[in-house]
Each structure stands twice: as structure tokens, then as C-alpha cells.
Amino acid sequence: MNTVLITGGTGYLGQRLLPLVAERAHVVATARNPRALSRLYHPEAMDLCDKACVFERVLAIQPQAIIHAAAINPGVDDARMQAVNELGTQYLAEAAHQVGSRLVMVSTDMVHDGTQAPYADEANPSPINDYGRSKANGERAALAANDNTVAVRTSLIYGLDSMDRGTAGFAERLAGGDTLSLFADVLRQPVWRDALATSLLRLALDFPNETGIVNVTGSDVLDRATFGELMLDFWQIPYSSKTVEHILAADLPELVGVPLNTEMSLVRAHTLGLPTPGVREVLANHNSVNLAGAHHATHD
To answer: In sequence order, what are the residues at sequence separation of 6 or more whose Cβ sits closer than 8 angstroms to the Cβ of residue 203?
Structure first.
């Protein structure tokens, strides 16, 4: 069997990737704390900020493919975010190139400024916040270091078997008596965790000649308020118009670094037959969505 190295195995996406990839390949999962990973996935310690550690582990494992799902999200120390998202990705790409490994890295729609939607797969990054800059720099470094790299730009990740971090935060705040203010003019394309994990697996093993950038999101373009309420409804979290208010980011001149519309074209994903079901379809069919046939209309 092929060996696939997966970084970020303890993360929200990684937790779905591990069992899915294990159906087709020998999986080695890495994390800063490998004890948090099941032995089924041959856990290894890897500090992405340590170049020597990254090279030593990749050379020892000799993976045919690497799915790089580890990242530092906004809200954490900016220096560490840059170190992991930019330098860590560069180290991993350089190590992958040295052993001839394919690299599939997870990027984000936050590399765009939100003023030129819809963004094509090949659209140049134009980030306006530190997280977007760190991911754009990581993309650039990986593509330069390893010519067998594909960067997957995606959006808000949600699942129906485990609550995503954003919804969990909303639930906690509502339970504490807070009022949520959700943006009604910030447009994103939420992606179902199962569909994204399937796409990453297929890009790693089924499309060895596909490189560059691929947008992989859900087909629905939703404002943050609508998406937030759809998730609260699904998880049966009580709220009302008094506890969840809709606001406009455009009315807050002091707010910087929030792209208003990061809609991305899904032409390449659909050409490859990657699954991109929209949120409403996933919610309506969450017991029977067929990933193999989920090839849907796009907003190009």
C-alpha cells in the first residue's frame, strides 16, 4: 500500500482524514502531541517549526504523498501562526521534494481580499489579514519548493457528526447569556468536512499529475449569519432574534481584515469530479449524500 503522511491529525479536518485515508493507504499521522492520536494511524511527533525535525521524519517515513492539514488559525500568537503556516509548510515541501513525495496542502479563501469575487483557481492572492498572509506565503513557498504540490483553497469547514469550532463557540456564548452578532454581508462557501477530506485523498492518490491551486468548497455561497443559524438549527441550539442579531461588516469602518466576499470558482474541482455539495443539500441529505456523485452546479 501507498504510505500517506498526514499532518494535523488531531485537528478538526485531520480527525476525518485519518480513517478515510486509512481505507486506501498506510497512514502515518503526525502531531506535536502524538499521544493524542490512535495507534491505528502510526502516530509520530513532528514540530513543523523545527526544520531538522521535519526533514528527519519525512526522510524516515518516505511517504508517497503528504496531506498537510496542520495550521495555526487566527486568535493564536501571530509569530507562531507565521512559523507554522509559512515556514513549516516550506520545510515540509522541501523535505517532500527531497524524497519525491507528492504534497497536498490545505489553504484558505482568506488569501483573497474579498473585492474581486468570484476568484478563479489561479487567482493571485491578495490577503488583507495576517492569517491570509501566512497561508498565501505558505502556498507560494510550497509551490516553489516542490513541483509536485497542489494547494487546496477551501472555506469554513463544518461537519454533521462533530460540531465545528465556530458553532461550538456560538453555542457556548449563547449558553452563557451572550448575544451573537453575525455578519449578514460577509459571504463564504462553507465546505462539508467529509467532502473536503474525500477531495484531499483523491488529489493525493488519484490525480498524480494535477498540481498548482484547486478551489474546493461547497457550492452554496452563504453569508455568515445564514450559515451560523443553519448550524445552530442543525445542532438544535436554541436562539431567537433577541439573542442572534444580524449586522453589516460594511457599517463598521473600524473593522479591518475581513474580506466581504471570498466566493471562488469551482471549475477545476468539477472538471476533476471532486465533491462540492452545498450546505443545504448536505443538511437535507446528511444520511445519504453520495460523495462519488456529488458534482454540482457552480457559481462561476
So the answer is: 104, 150, 152, 210, 214, 272, 274
* Residue 236: alpha-carbon gap to chain centroid: 25
* CATH code: domain of residue 41: 3.40.50.720
Q: How far apart are the C-alpha atoms of 48 and 7, rounded to whole Å?
A: 9
Do residues 96 and 134 lie in contact, with contact meaning Cβ atoms separated by under 8 Å?
no
Question: Which domain does 201 fall in, by range?
Answer: 3-157+191-215
CATH of residue 236's domain is 3.90.25.10
Q: Residue 81: pLDDT above 80? A: yes
Measure the CA–CA gap between 67 and 6, rounded to whole angstroms: 5
- Extract the C-alpha cell encoding 242: 433577541
Q: Is 35 exposed, middle or buried (0-12, 13-18, 19+ CB in 10 A)?
A: exposed
> In this predicted structure, what is the pLDDT of residue 287?
56
Q: For residue 231, how many other CB atoms are within 10 A of its CB?
A: 23
Paired strand residues for 214: 152
Give the best-scoring range by mean pLDDT among 29-33, 42-46, 184-188, 254-258: 184-188
Euclidean distance between CA atoms 128 and 243, whole angstroms: 30
Whether 294 has a pLDDT exceeding 70, the answer reads no
pLDDT recorded at residue 154: 98
State the DSSP H helix or E strand holding residue 46, giving kind and residue range, or none if neither: none
Q: pTM of the full predicted structure?
A: 0.93
Question: Per the domain annotation, does 205 fall within a domain?
Answer: yes
- Per-residue confidence at 289, pLDDT binned at 50, 70, 90? very low
Query: Cβ atoms within 10 A of the Cβ of 173, count?
Result: 13
Q: What is the pLDDT of residues 264-279, one digit of tens each?
A: 999 999 999 999 999 9
